[in-house]
């Protein structure tokens, strides 16, 4: 009988190597015509739509062939050189595509989130204001292959010495992954909000957990990153800030559905969670965060997981080629 492994769960979220993006038809997206900072990877369908946009709006982007990497490159055109101006361009572009019925499965109808995500000069530098390149609609980020950021929290206590985690079932009305199992609380980081403040906000909105309680017991413990190409072939490189909230004896609190994002919460031990993961019941990136929890708590080890080192490595993948470009590699 084959030895069981959680590697396929990690492979589900870390399944694209950006070093080979050009040969797969993706265009590098540079911040400006100095070609010194890469902010995304654009598929041909998006590139075609951008060309159509420029027919009626002028040369807001420069699209050229780069012989050194044998790929098309895209950059904001000269004069579009501030976060404010780039944000305005992306707002007009994405809203016109939405209203015109382009990419309906990504930004049409309820898919549109009306929430701004931040695109940074350097995706792995501090999330400080001076690192902000521009902002754009959350739902449209996958159209451009930009790095996005989220927060995940595992809420647990010990019962008779055994770890028990509160596991939510996602709402049947969620735009993505309805009725799959999730982390205790999770969400994206909107523009202008810190990871911790985003986490506290999500705890109150999704799980009815008071901010004072959360801030008293929550602890940031890790981060994970991976590079996903989803089933529709869009690129979704992600970074997740990982938190834990351990409730000691005497602290009487438990999560409860609040904003319609969650159907219910169930307290599960790690053996139960492992079986549910192998059964494919968890949203993949939430399962990746739980794997990180299992590693840090010694539940998943090199002795019981045959792909232990590869799992750890794949949970900390960089979006190679993003951010500042080494001088010898620039356009």
Automatic annotation (TrEMBL):
Pfam families: DUF4743 (PF15916), NUDIX (PF00293)
Residue stretches making up the Nudix hydrolase domain: 146-290
InterPro entries: DUF4743, NUDIX_hydrolase-like_dom_sf, NUDIX_hydrolase_dom
Annotated SUPFAM superfamilies: Nudix
Molecular functions per Gene Ontology: 8-oxo-dGDP phosphatase activity
Organism domain of life: Eukaryota
Signal sequence annotation: none
Listed name of the protein: Nudix hydrolase domain-containing protein
Phylogenetic placement of the source organism: Eukaryota, Fungi, Dikarya, Basidiomycota, Agaricomycotina
